[in-house]
């Protein structure tokens, strides 16, 4: 936009000077400029409307409120519609003016030396996932969830930002270190922070289930669920965890049809090619007058 405006200003000054000497050119230039402007509007209008009304762009803007980032933050957003949407939201609409939206071709090694922590959308795993970051930086960074749809990447271990900090053993030297439950009428946001005392070669899937009974026997007792093939939307398989590193995994369950669920289950499992599931462990919370309380360790 800056280049286009500068070009128009320089062209306008030049045309005005020529018009002083050749008066008949004024009308010709006016007709030409109006024709070119009309052509730009006709040709670019469908693309502009397509980008500004793109659901993925609107979705990423709506997710900004879920991002656990400071008022001043650097966001890595690869070139594309999400990048355009974020840039428009911050620079034009004035949402989070302290955020700096940068594309994937920046010098991220240098940026992380300055900013310590940067953020990116979970969908950027396709082409710009953990392996890409390791290659770009020259080392494996710390990666953790920063809210629904967002990832925090840092050269230092990331803090555990949860409402409840309490160590609960799950199994195979894996422990839950803290959690946060945020409920609305039809949505539940769950943040679970895990750690391991001993590195494992097993890649576990994670789950969060809502139920009306303490033990699910029939499908009707399961209200809703969220499963990740690997923690943090597949960004941090358990086999990549460092000893005692805290990895936070965010689950969001939307369109909850029933509000009478009394239990929340969370844990990990493995699955076989035959479709069998082997649960590593399960932690249970029950709703009481004080909110959600863990009842089984």
Report on this structure.
- Strands 2-1-3-5-4 form a 5-stranded mixed β-sheet, with helices on one face. Strands 10-9-12-13-14 form a 5-stranded antiparallel β-sheet, with no helix packed on it.
- The protein has 3 domains: 2-52, no CATH class; 54-159; 162-297, abc- transporter (atp binding component) like domain (Coagulation Factor XIII, Chain A, domain 1, Distorted Sandwich), CATH 2.70.50.60.
- The model has no long low-confidence stretch (mean pLDDT 85).
- The chain is elongated.
- The chain has helices at residues 2-21, 25-52, 55-62, 81-91, 108-115, 125-128, 130-137; strands at 74-76, 100-102, 117-121, 142-145, 150-154, 164-171, 174-183, 188-196, 205-211, 222-228, 247-253, 263-271, 277-288, 291-296.
- The N and C termini lie far apart (58 Å).
- A hairpin with a 4-residue loop joins strand 7 and strand 8 (188-196).
- Helix content is 29%, strand content 32%.
- By secondary structure, it is of the alpha+beta class.
Secondary structure: elements and pairs:
Layout: H1 2-21, H2 25-52, H3 55-62, E1 74-76, H4 81-91, E2 100-102, H5 108-115, E3 117-121, H6 125-128, H7 130-137, E4 142-145, E5 150-154, E6 164-171, E7 174-183, E8 188-196, E9 205-211, E10 222-228, E11 247-253, E12 263-271, E13 277-288, E14 291-296
Parallel strand pairs: 1-2, 1-3
Antiparallel strand pairs: 3-5, 4-5, 6-7, 7-8, 8-11, 9-10, 9-12, 12-13, 13-14
């Amino acid at each position: 936009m800056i280049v286009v405006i500068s070009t128009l200003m320089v062209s306008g000054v030049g045309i005005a000077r020529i018009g002083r000497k050749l008066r008949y050119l004024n009308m010709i230039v006016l007709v030409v400029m109006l024709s070119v402007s009309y052509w730009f509007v006709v040709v670019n209008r469908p693309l502009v409307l397509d980008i500004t009304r793109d659901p993925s762009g609107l979705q990423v803007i709506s997710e900004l409120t879920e991002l656990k980032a400071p008022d001043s933050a650097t966001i890595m957003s690869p070139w594309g519609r999400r990048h355009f949407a974020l840039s428009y939201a911050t620079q034009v609409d004035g949402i989070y003016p302290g955020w700096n939206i940068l594309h994937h071709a920046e010098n991220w090694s240098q940026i992380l030396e300055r900013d310590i922590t940067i953020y990116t959308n979970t969908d950027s795993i396709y082409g710009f996932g953990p392996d890409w970051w390791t290659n770009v930086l020259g080392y494996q960074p710390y990666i953790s969830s920063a809210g629904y749809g967002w990832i925090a990447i840092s050269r230092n271990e990331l803090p555990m930002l949860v409402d409840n900090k309490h160590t609960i053993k799950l199994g195979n030297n894996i422990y839950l270190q803290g959690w946060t439950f945020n409920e609305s009428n039809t949505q539940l946001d769950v943040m679970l922070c895990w750690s391991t005392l001993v590195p494992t070669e097993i890649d576990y899937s994670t789950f969060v289930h809502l139920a009306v009974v303490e033990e699910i026997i029939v499908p009707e007792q399961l209200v809703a669920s969220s499963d990740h093939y690997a923690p943090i939307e597949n960004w941090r398989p358990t086999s990549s965890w460092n000893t005692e590193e805290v990895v936070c995994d965010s689950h969001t369950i939307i369109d909850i049809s029933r509000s009478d669920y009394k239990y929340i289950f969370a844990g990990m499992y493995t699955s076989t090619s035959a479709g069998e599931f082997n649960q590593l462990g399960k932690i249970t919370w029950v709703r009481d007058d004080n909110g959600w309380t863990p009842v089984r360790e």
